[in-house]
Design goal:
- By secondary structure, the protein is mainly α.
- The protein has one domain.
- 93% of the residues lie in helices and 0% in strands.
- The protein contains two helices and no strands.
- The radius of gyration is 65 Å and the shape is rod-shaped.
């Protein structure tokens, strides 16, 4: 019976030692202060992680807002460019119309100046004709007056 107990004890011990030899993890005693320090480090890392996640969400919100603003600004820029092109076309058309109007007014001014010069020449010609006619009338009047005086002299001498 002692042999059976001894044999049973031998197998039990060999089984325990073989199981202990196969176990790869080693257990070390941890002091309470180290456990508290590790707990504090873990809590601090969790707080940092939460802060980082919150900052990430804020950054993502800002990125979304900036993307929306960028789209709006791009649309506004496109509209402003189109309006500028429209204004430039309108300005160029207005400038061309103004140049055409100035050209037409210049032609009309030249024509009116020519007409005015023609009328001045006609007026001068009329004045010259009138002066010549006045001179001829004076000469004729002097001739008639001379003839009358001569006739009167002849009549007076005959008497």
């Amino acid at each position: 019976m002692w042999k059976k107990c001894f044999l049973l004890l031998f197998f039990a011990c060999s089984l325990c030692f073989s199981a202990a030899g196969q176990q790869k993890e080693l257990w070390y005693p941890v002091k309470q202060s180290e456990l508290n320090r590790l707990t504090t480090l873990y809590q601090n890392s969790e707080i940092s992680r939460q802060k980082a996640l919150l900052q990430l969400k804020k950054s993502q919100t800002q990125v979304t807002n900036l993307q929306t603003l960028s789209v709006k600004l791009s649309q506004n820029l496109k509209a402003e460019r189109e309006q500028k092109e429209s204004f430039e076309k309108l300005y160029n058309k207005s400038k061309a119309d103004s140049q055409l109007t100035i050209t037409n007014l210049t032609k009309q001014t030249v024509q009116l100046q020519s007409d005015c010069d023609t009328e001045k020449l006609k007026l001068q010609k009329t004045k010259n004709q009138r002066n010549v006619m006045f001179c001829i009338t004076l000469i004729l009047a002097a001739f008639v007056a001379g003839c009358i005086i001569l006739k009167i002299k002849k009549i007076v001498l005959k008497l």
